[in-house]
Each structure stands twice: as C-alpha cells, then as structure tokens.
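Practice problem: predict the structure.
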Amino acid sequence: MAEKEMEKILKALANRRRLAILKYLKNRRQASVGEIAGAIKLSFRATSKHLIILSVADILDKEQRSSQIFYSIADSLPSAAKPIISLV
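Answer:
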C-alpha cells in the first residue's frame, strides 16, 4: 500500500464523528444519510461531508435509491482500515 493511500485512510478514520458513523453502520449494516445523522446527533449536511470522506477513502460503499443514498461498510475494506474498524 502506498504511503499516500495509507495517509488518506488514516486521516479519514482520525475523527470521532466518523468513528461514530462506522460504529453505527457496524450494527445496522446499511443506513441512509438521514438515519445516520439522527443516530449520531449531527446535521444532515455535516454527516454527508463525513460520509463522503469515508467513501472517498474506500471505507464505505454507497447506493443511490431514488432520492436517498444508503451507506454501508465496504466489503473490500483497505487493509489499513480493518484493524481500526474492528475496534469501534
């Protein structure tokens, strides 16, 4: 794994809100932006930004269903992310 890729993954995980999102998704499997925002008590807009960061780092998968986007933890997680996600 390239250093730049590892840095992107570790930066994405180095945030308490994003860790809360991952913890929620570990228990729920899949959820919409609105559901996640409500669960972690954060605005829809701020939650969306955190979800995009996790998605760009290949930690989350997203699926568009009509007007909603649903997120789940990626099936093919980057190896650097696996041990950290197992701790949340």
